[in-house]
Amino acid sequence: MPPNWGETPEVRFAARLQSSMLVVVYRGVVMAKAGQAGRALVALAIALVAAVSVAACGSPSNNAEPTGAASGGSDPHAGHVSAPPAAPLRAGERFQALSMPAAYTPQAPNGGTDEYRCFLIDPKLTRTAYLTGSQFLPQNAAIVHHAIFFRIAPEAADQARKLDADSPGEGWTCFGDSGVRGDAWVASWAPGANETLLAPNLGYPMPPGSMMVMQVHYNLLATGGRPGGSDQSSIRLRLNDDTAMTPLRTSLLPAPIELPCAASESGPLCDRTAAVADVGKRFGADIGGMEDELVEQCYKGSPPVAGVTQHCDHPVPQAATVYAVAGHMHLLGRSIKIELNPGTAGARTLLDVPNYNFDDQAIHPLDPPVALHPGDTLRVTCTHDAGLRGLLPQLKGTAPRYVVWGDGTSDEMCLGLVVMTAASRGN
Predict the structure, then answer these.
(1) Which InterPro entries does the annotation name (predicted)?
(2) What is the pLDDT of residue 81?
(3) Could you check whether the bond before residue 101 is cis, i.e. omega within 30 degrees of 0?
(4) In CATH, what is the architecture of 11-245?
(5) Among the listed residues 144, 130, 133, 141, the one whose alpha carbon sits nearest the alpha carbon of residue 52
(6) CATH class in words for 250-421
């Protein structure tokens, strides 16, 4: 299955994966950070080879950095926070502040511990602007796992408004993407990150009349799925109205997960069929069907084979330039790798994380950027460890299961992220 390069039949499937991403950055990004300023990632930023370390709620780490709003030494999941000042505006830039319309109290559906909720917000754009930076402000950091912002095209705005109006309460449930046709990921946040600044000439295009959907992943694992308080998060966008900008896009490289129960475990969800059905029960048919779709696409019709390591090859359909790469898994992740043209004389490794840490998911800039050509292949490979389920406090007490792709913190993912120049201006 190719990544979401353009209007291919696989684009809709790839777009459904976007809701599970954390933070995407690129060469030229400067990440303003609070606390622990001596970390290696800050040194990289100073060296103008930008990177950011992000943390996802739920996994303990003595090295986890505070939420961007927190002062030095405070807990990134301690609750309500306020952000430090943003960096000065650069030539042509302006700020646009957007907030959830009202406070929302999340409650995980179907006996789960995660809720993905979408909120419609309007930047009131009257001309094309480029998103050159963002600063997400989580009001209740204790329950905000991560947030993603989708651009909604003007022609799809009515569909978004109808989704909002037809759903009870604030916003709507949106496991997967925003649920609006043609949505495009343009910003995101996870604990440990503060303000993200792109290089002055890079940006995500925002046509006039565009709306935005704020998708917040609330994790209620600590409360067993019970409400954990309300939240009214917001974001400060950095926009540039100059049309002489280089558009960026993020392509996703997913792979299946076929992780059997550990030898010491047993239970009804150790059966693959039951485990896939359970994901569908908790997150709906689209998410529940992702694992089988990934197996079909990545293994070309061969049946799934249980094992700790899985991979998927993604053909490159058109030329592009890659500025940075990253990998995302959940709590059972051990290692992740992204390779270009594996098994050939020109093979090279773009990303190699042999000791994956869920609380320290660094973005890896490529200096110099890497050119992709039609016919190239990008491979993502992940290794997971079911034995971690009995070791991590966040997963103790959860039922043993055959692990497949799922949106919950206790489910798993294998996702490579590739940040590149857009295929054509305005896409």
Answers:
(1) Cu2_ascorb_mOase-like_C (IPR014784), Cu2_ascorb_mOase_N_sf (IPR036939), Cu2_monoox_C (IPR024548), DBH-like (IPR000945), PHM/PNGase_F_dom_sf (IPR008977)
(2) 52
(3) no
(4) Sandwich (2.60)
(5) 133
(6) mainly beta
Higher pLDDT, 156 or 19: 156
> Facing residues of 234 across strands?
99, 137
Query: What is residue 312's predicted lDDT score, i.e. its pLDDT?
Result: 98
Strand (E) positions, 207-245? Answer: 211-219, 234-240
Strands 202-206 and 246-254: parallel
Among 1-15, 31-45, 94-108, 273-287, the minimum mean pLDDT is found in: 31-45
- According to the model, what pLDDT value does residue 361 have? 62
Cα–Cα distance measured from residue 387 to residue 371, given in angstroms and rounded to the nearest whole number: 39
The residues spanned by each domain of the chain are: 11-245, 250-421
Residue 188: name the closest of 301, 31, 319 by CA. 31
Q: Supply the pLDDT for residue 95.
A: 96
Residue 298: φ, ψ to 5° = -80, -30
Could you give the 3-state DSSP secondary structure of residue 363? Answer: coil
| Amino acid letter, residue 347 | A
What SS3 class is residue 274?
Answer: helix
Q: CA–CA separation, 405 vs 365, rounded Å?
A: 27
Say which range, 63-77, 101-115, 130-144, 365-379, has the weakest mean pLDDT: 63-77
Tokens representing 168 are 């009870």
Asked if the domains at 11-245 and 250-421 fall in one CATH topology, the answer is yes
Calculate mean pLDDT across residues 107-115.
81
Query: Phi and psi (nearest 5°) for 15?
Result: -65, -30
On the CB side of 163, how many CA atoms lie within 13 Å of its CA?
Answer: 20
Rounded to two decimals, what is the model's pTM?
0.66
Q: How far apart are CA 401 and CA 411, in angstroms?
A: 9
Give me the residue label for tokens 């000791």: 355
Pairwise CA distance, residues 111 & 118, whole Å: 20
DSSP string, 134-192: EEEE-S-TTTEEEEEEEEE-GGGHHHHHHHHHHSSSSSEE-SSS-SSTT-EEEEEE-TT
